[in-house]
Structure formats: structure tokens, C-alpha cells
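Intended use. Records like the one below are meant for learning the mapping from a protein sequence to its folded structure. Do not use them to infer anything beyond what is encoded.
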Amino acid sequence: MTLRDPKALRSQRWFGVPGMRAFAHRSRLQQTGVRREDLQGRPVIAVVNTWSDLSTCHSHLRERAQTVKAAVIRAGGFPVELPALSLGEVMVKPTTMFYRNLLALEVEELLRSHPVDAAVLLGGCDKTTPGLIMGATSAGLPFVYVPAGPTLNGNWRGEKIGTGTHTRKSFDALRAGEITETQWAELETTMVRSVGTCNTMGTASTLTILAEALGVSLPGSASIPAADSAHPRLAGAAGERIVEMAWTGATPGRFLTPAAFANAVRVHHAIGGSTNAVIHLIAMAGRAGVKLTLDDFELGDRTPPLVADLMPAGRHLMEDLHFAGGTRALFKRLAPFLDLSAATVAGVTLGEAIADAEVWSDEVIRPLDRPVTGEPGLAVLRGSLAPDGAVIKPSAADPRLLVHRGRAVVFEDSADMAARIDDAALEVEADSVLVLKHAGPVGGPGMPEWGALPIPRKLLAQGVRDMVRLSDARMSGTHYGACVLHIAPEAAVGGPLALVRTGDEISLDVPGRRLELLVDDAELAARRAAWAPPPARFARGYGALHAAHIQQAPQGCDFDFLAGIAPTAEPDIY
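Structure written out for the chain above:
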């Protein structure tokens, strides 16, 4: 057989063989107006689309899917659009993280069960990026990921406004009486100016940039605003490229290598990326058969400086990054830290992809010797309170709190926190340590983004804007503060966090990478003996499946039966 022999295409098991089943497959598609010859000799390309009316970041993906399909036809392929679970971060409760693995499972089975040779994945809002990539990686078919793109810069009364970041800042200002309800309502209508994902270095942009660093999206794609005319051109380029990849069999293993994940970790530090990316990178690596652990995020003197001056750690927004040269220019600046021989879906190495890139603004993409801050974008903590690890984003915290000792003020769950956080009788001071339990993968459920605990109202009135806050939850990448997150094991499974009580002393030492509960062993043993796990929240359905099989944060929160690279048989279609 030649390289482009149609008989080598997976889809021809459905369409190109004799017998009644292939007859039925061809007949059913012909009822939609498809020609018989369209089904033979062309790669069938799945356009996996996470559009929905309630995933507002993806509201333009219907149009982008049509652009991809037209490009696939132009390149000699046959496109089929397959809708997938849409995870709009703001709308889905208790959290989209609860459903990330469901999306990954759906994508894997969509691709495996249908007559497709390769896929273009359309997503962008936080958990859609890892969910799509995890599922497609496990399916093992060639794919190109097309990010939805960030929304345009926000502006309010002459001030640059970042989605998510200024939501939190403005809400604190409202609770402190610094802005009025009228101003708050005005912000609501001006903060988000177009389709697209958050324009700060939140989880969405962090993960789309890391997908590009992994080599699974086209060079320069992650920084293109959703409303920019370059975005449909990107979609078209992906449609054309995937047809070539289908013919050449460019499967995920060619790109998702140890070198690619090492590049992604370095880029994550340099952009001050969302702490959520730690969980997702570990999960994606596991699907690719690459071992990635929390310790791999601690790079020591090999850590790149934080050069992307973007909110919440910096001053600018994703549209500014685009005009500063985009992700290609960002990677060019980081070239001394990256493996430039890593392959990309564009058919060139990372080094070749960025060879002619230029930085147009040193204020947005800082020189290596003039970083945004001297603090790292990420630190991994361990100690008696987090024996399996926890993370913090030092670049987004008040530096004075990075070494801190204080009295714990404990909330047993989110309802307890909501009921008491603004109570004038709450015994809390600026140097207290706020602690939230039962917000982890099991306890949340799904590890919601509750980790940026609100500052108590009475402290806001005193001018306090940051405190040490601890939880087994996650935090939105758009948020900021001295928030220790992903404490493992979580409280719901009996981790040390479950034993913390109000009044306990807690020590945080970010430079020393330590998080300690300063309670003697005998007292902790007594508390352990009295501890009982919380009652099960789900008697049936997806919630019960989630509780039974979810892994902890250091393992990427994948389902134990989905993790890894054990092969799954191709479907019997005869």
C-alpha cells in the first residue's frame, strides 16, 4: 500500500468494505445528500465542538466549526461535526472540574465509536482544553486543538479591566463600601466586551498557551482574540492541516513527549499561569504515558523568570499579548529554557515555528533580566499539613505573607464559610489564617474554585486586601492572594486538613516550601481517633461514579479507570 492508500484510513472500515454493514453506513449518509464518492478515498475528520448557549466563551464556535469544515473539504477531507459536553465555567455547578473527566470520556468514545480518521477540537473555556486533549489522546487519533481565543480588553472609566480579576477586586470594593451598587452594575455591563475566554492569565489562557507549548495547536494560536479576523483564519488553517495529519498518521504520541511537558512546565512559570494547570498537566501527561509529578514543577535555578506582564500578577491583558507579538514571541523570548526540537502539529519543530518571531513590546513580554516580579509563578509546599503536597502562586500574593505564622480560623465547608465570613462576631484578625475544609475532589465535590476565600467584611473595612488562606479547593486563575491550594490528602478522605481546629497555629514558609500544622502529635492522634468521614453525597449517577473513582490533586484528579495508556480495542463494526 502507498502512504495515501485509502484502504489505510480507519474510516474505510465503515465505508470501504463489502457487505451489508458498509452498505448501511453509506446509505444512511447518502440520505443527507452526501455523494457515495465522498465517503471513499477521503479522510473523515471529526470537528468536535463544545459550543452551547450557556458556554458564553464558546458562542462563536458554531461559525468556527463551519470554517473548519470548509477547510477540510478544500484539503480533500470529509468533515463531520460532533457536539461534545460544553463546560461553561461560570454557569456549570458545582464546578466544571466535576465534569472534566466526563468530557474526556465522551471525546474518547466519540472518536473511537465513529468512522473518523482524525479530529479538530474546538474549546477554550477552562476545563474544555484538558478534557478535549485527554480524551483525544486516549483515543489515539491525530488531532489539532483550536482554542476559542480570549475576549477583547475590558475598560471601565479609563481603567483596563480584566475578567475575573476585577470581579474579585470590585466585589471586595463593594463590600468595603468603596464603590456603589450603581457602579457595580455598570461594571457588570462593561467588563466583557466580546465573545471569547477570560482575557487575564486565568485558567483558560494558561491552558491554551500550554496546549501550544505542548505542540498540539498551531503556532501563535493561543493569543489570537476570539473576535479578531485572524481567528477564523486559524480555524481554517487547522482544518487544512488535520487532513495532512490524517494521511501521515501523526498521532498524539509524536507530540506529547516528556520534552513537550517539560516545555509546558517552564512556560507555566514564565506566564504566571493558573495553579489549576498543575492538575491538568499531570492528568494530560498521564494519558500520554508521560510521568509528571508535583516535584517536576519545582525547577530550582532552572526556573524561567515571570516575563508575561498580565493580570492577575501583572498589568496587561491577552489582547495586549497578541499585539506584543503573541505566543510565538513569548516562546522566542523563553527559547533558552525550552527544548526547541520538540515537534508540533504544524509539521515543524518548536524552534522552527518561532524562528522569525519578534517581541513588539518589552512592557508586555518582559526581557529575561527584567521580570514582572522576583517571586516564582508557582511553589509546591509540603509539611505536616500537606504531606502529599499543596501549591501557591507567590507572584500573585502579598510578599509579606509568604513567610507567616498565624492562628487558624476554620470553616468546615463552603456553607459554613458563607454563613460566618461577614459576621461581625467572627474572631478574626489580619494575621489570622483562614482555613476551608471539604472543598477537594471528593468533598467539594469536584474541587470547586473556592480557594480564594473572601476577606471578612470587617477586615476589608480596615483596608486588608490579602490574608493567608488554606484549602483543599482550587482557585480561579484570574484570582490572586496568599492562597494555599490543593492541600492533599483532602479533608474528606481524612487528610491532616480534616483535623485542623480554630485556634491552631499554622506556619507558612514559601521560600522553604513548608506548610506546617503546629499541634503536638498526641493531640492530633486524639483528633484522628474521633474523626469520621463525611456521609456520601450521592446514592447514584455520575456523582457516585465520581466519588468512587476520582484521584487526588497530585495525581491530576483523573478517574482511576481512565488514567494511563492501557489499550482499548477498536469497535467491531461487522
